[in-house]
Structure formats: C-alpha cells, structure tokens
TrEMBL record:
<dbReference type="GO" id="GO:0005524">
    <property type="term" value="F:ATP binding"/>
</dbReference>
<dbReference type="GO" id="GO:0046872">
    <property type="term" value="F:metal ion binding"/>
</dbReference>
<dbReference type="GO" id="GO:0005886">
    <property type="term" value="C:plasma membrane"/>
</dbReference>
<dbReference type="GO" id="GO:0016301">
    <property type="term" value="F:kinase activity"/>
</dbReference>
<keyword id="KW-0444">Lipid biosynthesis</keyword>
<keyword id="KW-0547">Nucleotide-binding</keyword>
<dbReference type="InterPro" id="IPR050187">
    <property type="entry name" value="Lipid_Phosphate_FormReg"/>
</dbReference>
<dbReference type="InterPro" id="IPR001206">
    <property type="entry name" value="Diacylglycerol_kinase_cat_dom"/>
</dbReference>
<feature type="domain" description="DAGKc">
    <location>
        <begin position="1"/>
        <end position="127"/>
    </location>
</feature>
<keyword id="KW-0594">Phospholipid biosynthesis</keyword>
<keyword id="KW-0460">Magnesium</keyword>
<keyword id="KW-0808">Transferase</keyword>
<dbReference type="InterPro" id="IPR016064">
    <property type="entry name" value="NAD/diacylglycerol_kinase_sf"/>
</dbReference>
<dbReference type="InterPro" id="IPR017438">
    <property type="entry name" value="ATP-NAD_kinase_N"/>
</dbReference>
<dbReference type="GO" id="GO:0008654">
    <property type="term" value="P:phospholipid biosynthetic process"/>
</dbReference>
<comment type="similarity">
    <text>Belongs to the diacylglycerol/lipid kinase family.</text>
</comment>
<dbReference type="InterPro" id="IPR005218">
    <property type="entry name" value="Diacylglycerol/lipid_kinase"/>
</dbReference>
Amino acid sequence: MSKRALIFVNRNARSGKKRLAQAVDILDELEFELVLVPSKRSGELADLIRKHRDELDLVIIGGGDGTLNRVVDVLVETQLPLGILPLGTANDLARTLGLPQSIPDACRAIAQGKRRSIDLGWVNGKYFFNVASLGLSVKITRRLSQGMKQRWGLLAYAISAVQALTQLHPFRAEIRVDGETIAVKTLQIAVGNGRYYGGGMAIAEDAAIDDQRLDLYSLEVKHLWQFIPLLWKMRRGQQASLPWVRGLHGQEIEIYTREPHAINTDGEITTATPATFRVIPQALTVLVAD
C-alpha cells in the first residue's frame, strides 16, 4: 500500500537543487504518492499542509534546521508525522535524531516508518526543535547569509562568530527557573530542547530531545582567552564545567532584560525578551532510522 506524503525541498539549502530530483525518484520507487510543493510557494507551505492534511500520511521536508523551524507549528497543529531529508548546512536536528546524511538512506529510513515521539521547546508561542538563544548567537545569525552558507558550509558559522566577537557587548538579564531567580551579566543565554545546535555543539552533556526538560547555559565570559577552552568543551556539552559558564535545567524558564533582546530559534530570529520558555513533551512524531 502506497503512502501519501507532501514533500518540500528547500532549493536554497546547500544541497537542495541537486538532491530534489534524486529524492523524488527514490521515493517514487519506494511507492510513495507525492504532493510536490514548488520552491516558489515555500511561504505558503503551512497553508498547503493544512489543505491536504486529511489526504496525507506524513510530511517530508528537505532542508536544514531553519526550514524545519518554519513548519514546526503547523506540524504540531495537524499532528502529521515528519520525515527529514538533511539538506542544510548544519542539520543539527538530523544529528540529534541519528538520521543518515545521504539522501538514499534518508529516504529508506522514511519508508521504513519507524516512529519516535520527541519533545519540542516553546518560547512566546513559537515552537522550536533544537535551541533558542539571545545575545552573541543572534549577532552570528544576522551575519550569516545564504551565500556564505552555500559557499563555506559549516565554516560560515566560524567566520560569522569571529566577526561577531569583535563587537562583544555583555548584557544583564534575570533568569527564573522553577521558582529560583538569578541575575546575570552575560554574552549569551541558550535554552535547548534537543542535543545539538550550531553545527554540532551540544547544549548539555546529557541532553536528549525526549528527556522532558530544557537545558540552559549562560556565557559569563570576561576575557577573550576564555573562549579557547569553551570551544573545546561545547563540542561535548561540557561548557557548564567552566567557572564562567552557568548551567541550569528546568521545564519552564523565564528571561527578562531591561531592553528587548531578539531571540533566535533554530537559526531563525522569531521573538524577543521578555520570554517564557517551556518544554512540550512528546509533541511531535518523527520518522527515524533503525
């Protein structure tokens, strides 16, 4: 019996243009009935999913974390399972879920239909998969262009980070976690739901996308040399072991700042402080590899 799937591939993703035809051919061979969404209609993707919701068994998205973030709200609304073709620059959600990086293997994983329920983060009414953050990461996001990512891949993040570091400005914030209030002077606050973000950095050493908690760290760095051990630790999620990094956990977190600070969710700037973050347990079903 064929499966009916709406498929959207972001042709602006680093590998999008080359892989769309390949994915469609493979999924056709795997007996999928596909509703194709032209790239020019990507802004209407949520409406198309709503329109076809009763005709679909799942939604397949080809792109990176930003593309996935743009459809997460409608996926929660419709409760359609999600298949992922990792075609972005970082593919942190795919990394968290242990998905294969090749298109043929990713298509086969979707066809096998193994389901996993995952948590989602929520901030000010916006869902996110991986991490929401404010401060330095927002400066990096604003410097990242699509052209940079297509040309340099993951190196684009490092280039943008170095540029952003030349404009370091700590800010004061108040963090409330499970009834406790903490005042900080920080360069960045990150609140994670999944495990990986930013091209393979881990939000916390034991973070998982189904652990029903949020993991927060605050970068209270005072000197540039402190970034050297920090970068090493962040690959393993061990940054909170450094004295200039604060680590917290909770199911609901509030952040207040004197002036509004933009918040980045999965690489997209979507809201601002004051902000309330929550974990939404088992909010979405994704198709994963065996």
